[in-house]
Amino acid sequence: MQGGRPGVRRVRMIDVANSLGLSRATVSLVMRNSPLVSEATRNAVLAEAERLGYIYNQAAANLRTQRNDLVGLVMPDVMNPFVAEVSLGVQEVLGEVGFFVMIANTVDRVGLQRQILGSLVGHRAAGVVTIPALTATADDFAGLRQSGLPTVLLLRRIDGVDLPFVGTDEAAIGRLGAEHLTAVHGCRRVAYFGGDPLASPRVGRMESFRRAVTEAGAGWDAAWSQPLDATADAAYRRAAELLEAGPPPDGVLCHSDNVAYGLAKALRLGTPEAAPCAVLGIDDLHQSAMWNPSISSIATDPVELGRVCGRVLLAEMGMPAEGSRVPPAPEMHARASCGCHRATRPAGRAG
Amino acid sequence: MQGGRPGVRRVRMIDVANSLGLSRATVSLVMRNSPLVSEATRNAVLAEAERLGYIYNQAAANLRTQRNDLVGLVMPDVMNPFVAEVSLGVQEVLGEVGFFVMIANTVDRVGLQRQILGSLVGHRAAGVVTIPALTATADDFAGLRQSGLPTVLLLRRIDGVDLPFVGTDEAAIGRLGAEHLTAVHGCRRVAYFGGDPLASPRVGRMESFRRAVTEAGAGWDAAWSQPLDATADAAYRRAAELLEAGPPPDGVLCHSDNVAYGLAKALRLGTPEAAPCAVLGIDDLHQSAMWNPSISSIATDPVELGRVCGRVLLAEMGMPAEGSRVPPAPEMHARASCGCHRATRPAGRAG
DNA sequence: CCTTCGGTTTAGATCGATCTAAGTTAGCCC
DNA sequence: GGGCTAACTTAGATCGATCTAAACCGAAGG
């Protein structure tokens, strides 16, 4: 709630108009590229505006027109490469039709999220795409709902909030992972490793994974399937701890590639060559192919996911939106960490 | 340039006022928590506002007060974890004094950057922090300069633009890298690997690195020091290519950790055990410690860098800013990739 | 009883744009 | 010359708030 420049008086439309003996309305028409003004006037106005250093005040225009071109993308973690890439898709679709997408970072704190959403409502933004903070509840979205601000929930569901939702196909991810581990690698005992218990994707994925894996006759390792922060570091420490206690399951679906990185490091640390463990990540970050061993991962095209999200928001705003509104299907990208490809020269297999 | 809700008529301050037989001014005072209104009126107003579903219009207020709480953080790549973390620091410092920081993504395209900066000026933002797009020139900032919008340049310098600048200490980074490779590891032939030729940090780092390394009596490998996209993939391909042609230098300072990842993968691929190569990254991303081999890296605390940047912007806006306005000094974080620590069990040394 | 005073409240102008409906031209045709 | 049209241009209200300066009001003071 600060700002504003000191110094010389700002120049307004009326200054340009007076300076030319025209009315504000005419200058306004020029600024908006209306075909109603003659070429001569248009040029004169543009030249004079330039000369006076006039800067169009979009904020004032927005107030009058009751319109806004700002769309807020509210997310808990800009550092997560997956969501960062999703933002590209959102921006692509919305930018195309003239919206201005800006990202606000909640750092996964509900208080901050609340404040940001409130600010967006107060500024009369055109729309909001949000990945809710982990501990968010329906209450946190009550204000949003009431304000009528077009909103799309991304990636994380919230109980009791019936806003449109766009996310990855968790059931398919679980099934893909299960099938790959059991059918391709013949795993006999598996786990779902990592992920915050509050994260809605975890629930869906783990459930379908566990069902599919059980149907395939594999055992479930409950100890390895406890929830956990979705960071590489937390995964590393937990895995190291569990490895002390005994051999790992022979197949693990990790909550994210980040988690897989931590697990891969722990496995490298001390697993006897005799107990190989097939590791699968989720998200397929760019780096996963660079990793040693390269990380097998279940990918959902993040940019396309973002585009879908953008289109759903457009629809929500009552605008035409061409293209699919169904999130892309996940795909298995098999590499070395599950044992599909040999690891590169000097290092051994994944586990 | 769209948006606006359909449905019932919006409720304004005057509606709340009329409904209570008060004036707009009084309601306005309540909304701004002025001590001028009596407790009784305040409560009545708040209750009535709640009842009518009134939502304060910050945009209208901003127009009248000529103030704004929006600060734009304009960056070329939200997916880069280093800059993402810098944004945390900026947000921390500015959020503390009531500013609302939002991030806009230029995807390193000057056209888009121009458009975004223009939009920020047009919306009368309170200030801007920007990491210029790679190909940006002074022209791209002419409008910004003229508008008087308080601006800070982050990480990348632009010739001919005298806006305040905050960035890492490139000379120190070059020196640290040189010293580590020559004095600690006794490297005899080194290179600076990767980085776009247009990126201003590359120039500063490489220059000081080369000077220090030459003074220490080590040779310079020009072929390995050619510029290159700062991605892991580009680094991998280039390194693989160069390795075909002959042995690598025995010490390499990489433009970033991402570049180091690519190089590490290439080295794993085919280096004969006989030709070890010490690899150093820059930025020390969180993942670098997880890598195999763990990546040695020269770190500048990104969050603190962001804080410094926020403080410089505050000063630029004529506001008090407590705390340092000098970027933190870089530090060497030695791990396995340069040979400082043994790599973890199964794999061999870095190269 | 009138004045003064501090605590509240308010009318009217204002921020910088857009919109509506009406006004001004010039040109053309009969 | 008058009427009509097409092409521009404009005055005044408006968006939803804040600001200034003045008004109101009950109590205390003279």
Number of strands of chain A: 11
Shape of chain A: elongated
Rounded mean pLDDT score of chain A: 92
* CATH overall fold name of the largest domain in chain A: Rossmann fold
Q: Which second-level CATH architecture of the largest domain in chain A applies?
A: 3-Layer(aba) Sandwich
Computed structural class of chain A = alpha/beta
Identify the CATH homologous superfamily of the largest domain in chain A: Response regulator
Most extensive interface between two protein chains, with residue counts: A-B, 81 and 82 residues
Q: How many H/I helical runs of chain A?
A: 12
| Portion in helices of chain A | 40-55%
Radius of gyration of chain A: 26 Å
Described by its quaternary structure, the protein is homodimer
Distance between the termini of chain A: 55 Å
What key attributes describe this structure?
homodimer; 351 residues; alpha/beta; 434 Repressor (Amino-terminal Domain); Rossmann fold; 12 helices; disordered C terminus; DNA-binding
Can you tell me about this structure?
Chain A is an alpha/beta fold and about 350 residues long. Chain A has three domains: about 15-55, lambda repressor-like DNA-binding domains (434 Repressor (Amino-terminal Domain)); about 65-165 and about 305-315, 3-Layer(aba) Sandwich (Rossmann fold); about 170-295, 3-Layer(aba) Sandwich (Rossmann fold), CATH 3.40.50. Helices cover about 40% and strands about 15% of the residues of chain A. Chain A has twelve helices and eleven strands. The first copy, chain A, has a six-stranded mixed sheet with strand order 7-6-8-9-10-11, with helices on both faces. Chain A has a five-stranded parallel sheet with strand order 2-1-3-4-5, with helices on both faces. Chain A is elongated, with a radius of gyration of 26 Å. The model of chain A is unreliable at about 1-5 and about 345-350 (pLDDT under 50). At the A-B interface, helix 4, helix 5, strand 2, helix 6 and helix 10 of A face helix 4, helix 5, strand 2, helix 6 and helix 10 of B. Chain A binds a DNA duplex (30 and 30 nucleotides) through helix 2 and helix 4.
